[in-house]
Write a structure and sequence with these properties.
This protein is α+β, with helices and mostly antiparallel strands. The chain is 28% helix and 24% strand. It contains 14 helices and 21 strands.
């Protein structure tokens, strides 16, 4: 039976049984249509607000499959999207009616402990990589939620508990295996295809499909000092002011994330706090344990905490501590800013909007950056924004579609109120689908964006990879 796929230009393409069978004959993975078993879970991503239905999903077993799929899409001019971990807030992994290339079966990780490097396939999550590297007391610079895919995280910049020590995730990539828009497998590194390598370190999925990443690893763990401390929301002003002072003085081995939200029914929080507004600080000290205990002591002693679970724990456990707040299947809508710091007025605005939170699952988060991030020039990679001290994430999260408008309105209001305190930059991985050219320009800056546009023309002249935060070549 002939199937119909959406074309890149918005039209449709008829795919005969013979054409589809010829493609399948040389494809080692699985090819799934809307009527096939496995289609629903394959098209479903983390954010339940994304409800698109690809015309065909090809689940790749390796780079050869990716090459074949890219050539198939290019030959027939299909609308194309690429799924790694499927954790992006904008849900760009899934296209409506087109061809979705699914990398999630590709989860191999190979660690070289002597060289302190790891090669990880693009379908890996953070948890997959952390699990293998921690066997050797090593870690890559990755994010905060273990279910996040490494591919989207890395090509969009990437930051986590180790960023203050070692920079953006993309700063620590040594090489990438890439399938170009021409369907050719190439290596991108500082000494080979250097322009492509530069573009992929923050430029998103605009330039090719990365099938594996080689990361530089760093000695971390297997145990670190980490956890969370919570106070009642009535103490938020004092706690956040102390957070500001405390983080300004801590060494790079210590990273803190401040959170304003309603207390979830988590076992580490007293029952009487559940459902009540709180302020919490998640802290990770990746250096020596005893040194970390001295550094964190003033934070633990501040005010009257209602809970404190800062302790010696496995680094892999720290990396998944926020997982329960980000389950697959909720509806998510984020707004974000880079901040140069946080002063008394900004704290006041954040507390004001935290008091208006609509959903008990939503939160306002401040992720600490600075440190090694600012040691490289802004043009070192497209990720840029090396003048930022914090990432503000206004993270809307709720269950029912009927509540979309109220929750999105809350997130936008907080975002707009915090605009005056922003650096003017934007983190590409936190941009929602509605945020277009202006915010993409804010993510890269004028100089980087101009170079990215020139490289887009060179590496993807037919705009095969445009179902992303698109850069117009």
């Amino acid at each position: 039976m002939t199937i119909e796929l959406k074309a890149a230009d918005g039209g449709t393409v008829q795919v005969s049984p013979e054409i589809l069978q010829a493609f399948k004959a040389g494809f080692a993975g699985s090819v799934i249509g809307p009527d096939d078993d496995g289609y629903e879970p394959a098209r479903t991503v983390w954010n339940a607000m994304i409800d698109r239905r690809p015309g065909l999903i090809v689940r790749c077993s390796g780079t050869a499959d990716v090459v074949r799929a890219v050539r198939f899409a290019s030959q027939h001019h299909f609308l194309l999207s690429v799924r790694g971990g499927g954790h992006n807030i904008a849900g760009l992994a899934v296209c409506e009616g087109g061809l979705m290339i699914d990398l999630s079966p590709m989860t191999g990780v190979w660690v070289d402990p002597a060289a302190r490097t790891a090669r990880a396939q693009a379908g890996c999550t953070l948890g997959d990589v952390d699990r293998e590297t921690q066997l050797h007391g090593l870690a890559a610079v990755l994010g905060f939620v273990s279910a996040t895919g490494i591919a989207g995280l890395t090509v969009g910049g990437g930051f986590g508990y180790l960023t203050r020590r070692h920079g953006w995730t993309c700063d620590t990539v040594l090489s990438m295996e890439v399938v170009t828009a021409a369907g050719e497998p190439v290596r991108a590194a500082a000494d080979e295809n250097a322009d492509l390598f530069w573009a992929l370190r923050g430029g998103g999925g605009n330039f090719g499909i990365v099938t594996s990443f080689e990361y530089r690893l760093f000695p971390v763990g297997p145990e670190i000092l980490g956890g969370a401390i919570a106070w009642r929301a009535e103490d938020a002003s004092e706690v956040l002011d102390f957070y500001r002072q405390f983080t300004a003085a801590t060494p790079r081995e210590t990273t803190c994330v401040a959170v304003l939200r309603v207390a979830p029914p988590a076992p580490w929080l007293p029952r009487e706090i559940h459902g009540q507004p709180i302020v919490a600080i998640f802290v990770c000290h990746s250096g020596g344990i005893e040194e970390g205990e001295e550094i964190v002591a003033p934070l633990r002693a501040f005010g009257k905490p209602v809970a404190d679970i800062v302790t010696r724990r496995p680094y892999t456990q720290m990396q998944s501590l926020l997982d329960a707040t980000q389950p697959k299947g909720r509806r998510y809508y984020w707004k974000s800013h880079y901040l140069p710091g946080v002063d008394a007025k900004a704290i006041e605005v954040l507390i004001e909007h935290a008091a208006r939170i609509v959903s008990p699952h939503s939160a306002i988060l401040l992720f600490q950056l600075d440190g090694a991030l600012g040691e490289l020039p802004a043009e070192h990679s497209p990720a840029g924004n090396r003048d930022a001290a914090l990432v503000l994430n206004v993270a809307g999260s709720w269950e029912n579609a009927a509540d979309d408008a109220a929750n999105m309105r809350w997130a936008r209001a907080c975002f707009e109120a915090m605009q005056a305190f922003s650096t003017g930059g934007a983190y590409i991985n936190f941009l929602t689908e509605e945020e277009g050219a202006e915010r993409i320009a804010a993510a890269y800056g004028k100089t980087n964006l101009k170079r990215l546009a020139e490289l887009k023309k060179r590496f993807d002249p037919d705009r095969l990879f445009h179902h992303t935060k698109n850069i117009d070549g």
